[in-house]
Amino acid sequence: MSEANGNVRIGVYVCHCGANIGSIVDCKAVAEYAAGLAGVAVARDYKYMCSDPGQDLIRQDVQEHGLNRIVVASCSPHLHEHTFRTAAGKAGLNPYYMHMVNIREHDSWVHEDRASATAKAIDMVRAAVRRVARHQALTRGSVPIHPAVLVVGGGIAGIHAALTLANAGKKVYLVEKQPSIGGHMAMFDKTFPTLDCAACILTPKMSSVKAHPNITLWTNAEVTKVDGYVGNFKVRVTRWPRFIEEDLCSGCLECIEACVYKEPKFADEFNLGLGKRKPIYIPFPQAVPQVPIIDPETCIQFKSGKCKKSCLAACGERKAINFQQKEQVEEIDVGAVILATGFKTFDPLRTPYYGYGQYPNVYTSLEVERLVNASGPTAGEVVLRDGRKPKSIGIIHCVGSRDVAANRWCSRVCCMYSLKLAHLLKEHTGAEVFNFYIDMRTPGKGFEEFYQQLLNEGVHFIRGRVAEVTDWALDPTEEGKLVLRVEDTLLGVVRRIPVDMVVLSVGLEPQPDAQDVRRLFNISCATEGFFLERHPKLAPVNTFTDGIFLAGCCQGPRDIPDTVAQAGAAAAEALALIDAGSVEVEPNTAYVLEEVCSGCRTCVPLCPYNAISFDLQKNRAQIHPVLCKGCGTCVAACPTGSIRQHLFEDEEIFEEIEGVLANV
Amino acid sequence: MNEPKEGNGGKSYVYYPGCSLSATGVAYDESLRTLFRLLNLRLQELEDWNCCGATSYMCIDEGSAFLLSARNLSLAQKIGARELVAPCAACYLVLRKTQDYVEKHREIGGKVSESLQRAGLPPLDGVKVRHPLEVLYNDLGVEKLRQLAVRQWQGGRIACYYGCQAVRPYDEVDRPHNPMRMDELLRAVGVPTVDYALKTKCCGGSLTGTVHEVGLRLNYILLKEARRKGAEAIVTLCPLCQFNLDVYQAEIARQSGERFDMPVLYFTQVLGWALGGDFKELGLKRSISGSDLIRRWFTAKEEVEAYV
Amino acid sequence: MDFTPRRVIALVREGFRADVLSCQTIWLCASCYSCAVHCPQNVHITDLMYSLKREAIRHRMYPARFPIPVLAREFYELVRKRGRNSEIWLVLRMALKSNPFILLNMAKYGFSLLRTGRMSLRMERIQRVEELPKELNGMKEVAS
Predict the structure, then answer these.
(1) Which of A656, B3, B46, B133 lies in disulfide reach of A127, CB 3.0 to 4.6 Å?
(2) Which residue in chain C has the smallest CA separation from A354?
């Protein structure tokens, strides 16, 4: 019920925000004006309202002057609405008797003329005063949080987040699209700057995940539907068939040995096509789970139905192979979700002047990781596609990064991994190695020292962006080689460097299905396509959707230490949410006046959050206050005007409009 | 305003020859007209066209350069044409750039309109500038060309040379890196082409005339690499490239001590030949280098069966 | 090329006007556009080179009788008055005004070109010369 104006005693506080507001808006004048408005008992201007003394001011005034409404004219409610609502609450008022006016982002930060800006601030404050007089007391609802977490993506980010949460005693579902967890890190040979073996540090964590009683691991699976809201997500996970029963498989891998294909024949995805696999295969030796998978596109039994099925025979008594296996759908309830879906590398077919796909001995950095890896397609021997061993190697930095024609951003890890590959390639082949860079970006701990180590190893560092990789030979020494043409900017001359092998340090991009994933979880992507964090500095793991967190490269390019740190942070945020036990729900929700509702059902399909249901017996629409996000769509659409919204009642809005236009 | 007249059933194009096609590049003009006639496509020369300005005008005054070349687009517009075909790569680029900058930069568009108005010509309204390579590739198509060929190729392997200004900075004629449309058209009529990494490296343009040594070196590199890749002749689409590669071979040979006597032809000459064109009509006697090979490759035996 | 395009730009940015306008690079640029197509920052390098050429001509900061700006000037004069370029006349005038020895070198080619019918001695011109743009219209340089 709204009170008649006579009973309201409003306190108006105009904040200078240091010089942010005060240098453009004459806060004193605004406060003086406000003091003359009907219903205003106290009007002040103050340097920093959000500070402790500022908030104390409100509390004191409420006590001394019997205030029952507050208007704070300062910055964006995004920043401090919570602060001032809490302050009002501490002062003994219902928090929703406080209304904030943004005279910073909406006024002082976007205008230069003092007089007009001050006049605008006056209009806005006048509107807020009229509005707040109509505010009603509201209470926040509370929803319980389901104490389980879904982690999407089983790379190092997802693994670390899952383990952290599981160790804290929480139930974790880890869903991974590939047949094995491990992500990109499982493909690397050594990691910078310590040159730790990637598999050696990763596989113990992978095993822990499998063994952990609190983690349910689903690989070869994808999230296909998400409903609900923070604390109460209902998620459907579809587990695609691998045609081998995980529970029955012992991981002996004899089926692979026994396959009718004596030699592997098909391009091996994990080795990026550099090696071959059979139709029944395990992605890499340390795969978790240690269960093979059958590819129906290449398996003879699937293509023609007429295979000897020696794999079945090899499996024998265990009977783990099941050609009839169907996809399995799991429905789970979780309280929070951590997205750790990772990245993809830039496709250098988009920079054709580097010769990828045209000349056989041009490789991407990821392909080289597989080449130097002892469990790779060439057992760690660096052998080119044409069988030769390279005596000279060129590594080109910034492929697909820092380029308006490709991706504008710097991919952050490529300088370091280019140094690492230079070291590994030199170690494996003894070749002469050239790194071609624009800038050397080595910001992390031990990174600059690593660069020094490489300088001492005799690797050539040429500062210049390679113009092209060509097989044009000017003289006999260049025959049969790939020539890199580059301006050596430190020397000041254009050079031709003939090499046997070219490595393209490709940048990091969002996954190709990032848009689909973000729609599924109702979060946003930034313009580059990475998932959008709530605040780049202060909330890098939160999203604008409560309960959904980000970890790792799906949010932006980063290396392993930063990824692990971020995964821990996401896990901590999820833990904070769960351990709070419940989450408060904002009361700015829509509600139906049953006596006015005509049962037309116009509103029901409009709700983006599926918060409106229809009671067939009563023939009235019903809005679930916890699901409702207060978007206002149904309020506007209702033909009889029977839907209202707390905090956005008609009287409140009309008063605000009248207040703004009073001088027009 | 008279519309460009339709030929006997075939499509019609308004044709902008450019200054060099009446002198050093006359073989291009001859072979282009012959080829289009054999394809039943009509070429109507733009009446009273003026020089596009090439690179020189732009060195003196940017504004004048656009005004000069815009007159041609306006003349095309006046006769109701929506397209203008320019075979010389430099003309193509200047006209195409004018078309682009007039649309993109209001200041240029405005001045051009004023100047045209003073001359009593219509303002520009989106006349598109095209190149015959792209016209053949898109409007006719590789398959149709294959069907129309009547002669088998008797010559050697070809390095297709695209040069600079037809493929940069605009990529409608062909893509800037490793373009293949000329190769595809030639292969469609049975002409084998080689991989040629230098197919878009600059021939130096007018540098052969002004800073002779630099120009010679650029062309030496092009000729040498073509031969290294197994080509016996070069086929190009720009009259200045043809001139540079053709005319100075003897001097290059003398300076380098290496033998050079490669035919340098226009793609319209080779395609025209495959479609049954006549030696003289195709301007094949205009070449300076490689004339022996040209005589041998382009001798008409009795017509062989239609090349299917 | 004495300065690479990258150095030319750096010199322009830091105000080394005399060095840039008297360098060879801006003249040797044949407008092949390879640089502009490749540039990861989308700098219109070729247009920049044209701009520097114009600036150098405007302030006469090139060696006297250097063929390239002479060629540009002669081309400009020919076309401005007649609307068409006549190759032989252009080469003649350019050579006479810069380095007549060019003609000696060109002479041997003259015969081949005459023989193959590729030399025209006609002074070309269009019919409606009045439709050509009149004077240097002094349009401001388009910021590239």
Answers:
(1) A656
(2) C38
